[in-house]
Amino acid sequence: MATILTEEQILELDKKHVWHPYSSFDMSLAPFPVVSADGVRLTLKDGRQLIDGMASWWSVLHGYNHPVLKAAAKDQIDNMAHVMFGGLTHEPAVKLCKTLVDITPTGLNKVFISDSGSVAAEVAIKMAFQYWISQGQKQKNKIITVRNGYHGDTFITMSVSDPENGMHHMFDNVLMEHIFVEAPQCMFDDVFSEHHVQDLKQTLVEKSDSIAAMILEPIVQGTGGMRFYSPAYLKRVSELCDEFNVLLICDEIATGFGRTGKLFACEYADISPDILCVGKALTGGFMSLAATLTTDKVAKGISEGEAGVFMHGPTFMANPLACSVANASLELLLQGNWQALVSNLQKQLLKGLLPAKDLEQVADVRVLGAIGVIELHEPVHMPTVQPMFVEEGIWVRPFGKLVYVLPPFVMSDEDVASLTAGMVRVVGRI
Fold this sequence. Notes:
Layout: H1 7-17, E1 34-38, E2 41-44, E3 49-52, H2 55-58, H3 67-77, H4 91-103, E4 110-114, H5 117-134, E5 142-146, H6 155-159, E6 179-181, H7 198-207, E7 211-216, E8 220-221, E9 227-228, H8 231-243, E10 247-251, E11 275-278, E12 290-294, H9 296-303, H10 320-335, H11 338-353, E13 362-368, E14 371-376, H12 382-391, E15 394-395, E16 402-405, H13 413-429
Helix pairs in contact: 3-10, 4-10, 5-9, 11-13
């Protein structure tokens, strides 16, 4: 029989051996041990329950412990938990790829399945480079992107995340150098003008011969500031990429599957990129899985080259267990009333967070779809504020100046009210 650890034992062993994301071993803030999760609540080892405002970093759309997702995992594991994808295929992966082709913008009909969002973005950039190499244009070896972006923690994705205000500037002497232009200055409800893309356009005029692709997060720049920008800006970016023969990569890892109020955020601009990345919510937060979709043009272009194949192949690519859960999650989403749920979440988040605008420490409050943001004038002190949220009975994980939430779509109005009221109270005490 397995030994059950006490809370003190968990924390002691955690402190000795476990390295958490973006943390150090001398951190002054101990993590909070979780023993179970159900619906929109986390249960801590000490018995307290927290309303989860983070949906485990954008991913848990349907809430925790969903019976449909559990059943999909149990059914699949009786057949096979995993099998290599080289030279073999299986029904869960084929069904998943077909669904992704059906629901994403027109033209994206080739799907490469990977393990995580960072890898999906890495694959997208690698596709772009190999496409141009295969077309005999090896000089197109740079990526262009906007400032305030974030695309992952692997080395290529770090190199196209914001070089100054992002999390990876300390690696500037070891990263590949790419091209950055001004971040979108035309916010979601602003009137777009051509001057908003002047920096991008001028850079493309001067350097497009060396640029393989442009990558950006459509409509919502996440970790780079939770900035919501104009669909008209994104549409003009797509037009400029076409004009200057640059592939367009849309990173929908955070925004995909309804989070912004559209199934995919690029639908706001009515565009279809050359390459699209999805992840996070793909399995409803059940396990790690991601995918990169592209067009016949890119797939054919890569296959015409010297290698004749796309040079990438993760060991756990298209894991059947993860694919089966993803299929169940997407069916739940597409056959449910996700649009109404997200629309209502937007109303409830706005209602609950607007009182924070009256606080002097608050710079802005903004909401789009199931994303609610309180932006402060100064960064939060995590060891101080994290326990304050827990005391309020809510799980909120601030970042820098941002106190933000991305609730599961199924969160009730009452729970949203409790979540947002707790956020405003904590911010008022900072």
